[in-house]
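Kindly review both lines to help learners:
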Amino acid sequence: MMFDRIHRIWNPIQFHYPRFLKRVAGKSFFEGWYFKMVDAAGRQPLAVIPGVFLGKDAHCFLQVLDGFRGEAAYHRFRLEEFSTTDDPFELRIGSNVFSERYVNLELPDRGPRGRIDFGPWHPWPVRWNSPGAMGPYSFTPFMQCYHGILSMDHSLSGKLTLGDRSTDYDDGRGYVEKDWGSGFPEGYVWAQSNCFDRPGISVSASVAKIPWLTGSFTGLLAGLLWENRIYRFTTYSGARIDSLTADSEEIEITLSDKEHRLEINVSRLAGGAVLHAPYDHVMIERVPEVMTASLRLRLWKNERLLLDETGRNACAEIVNAGVLRPE
């Protein structure tokens, strides 16, 4: 069992604690994969989150965020309907299938229903000493929440039906990340977009209050994909948060390291929905998310502006941002 858990550190897409499906009394655990899909016209952004929650109310689920309507639906399944395989990775909840190559959805009523195929993924690099987005924190056994960025950007093809609305996702853009652990942070800010006029650009940035042995600290995990390179701004790489403001109208974050400065401004934060998330050993409606925000990013090297782009269909979440303090 120990070797299996160590092996999964270098494979962030995989289900990290399959033995937990047998459930240990008094413990809780969650794991969820976030599949974002935006059609080429940006008219039907959609996030589908398959996951599992283990605790007093153990079950698996499919959560659907309709960015067009600003509505969220939580579909609950029996724990026995959840299964995964590792090589190749495949996750099944009922008749719904998720993999690195495609998703196939067969949800009742308003859906979604249909199949979306993926182009090649652009994952956060996995190295022997830094296995994915968490870097060396991946080796820490007592983290409250672990995070993986599985694909910063990839193409889409196929169709989905959501209610009475059928959408063609050919030439659309996809993004995939995941979280697992015992619960979400007390407070955090997260923003992401990969819908820019120039293809191949993607940004994902999160700032969160991280419990630690000596109390807590404000953690930073941000990446910018541009010209097939991921510019990393993370706590473990020595980057810092120069400024952070987040309210109901906009998010402004400035990050820097020894060479670069990344400025992110997210606006038009209205029109979202509330997602379920793990807090206090239960899944509750807690996280507001919008999928139709505007995100402007600027990348500087010294005082030379390298990149200035504005992305559409940006996702953003703000939870108890008052506890965050740039360090």
Residues 2-323 form one domain. The mean pLDDT is 93. The chain has one domain: 2-323.
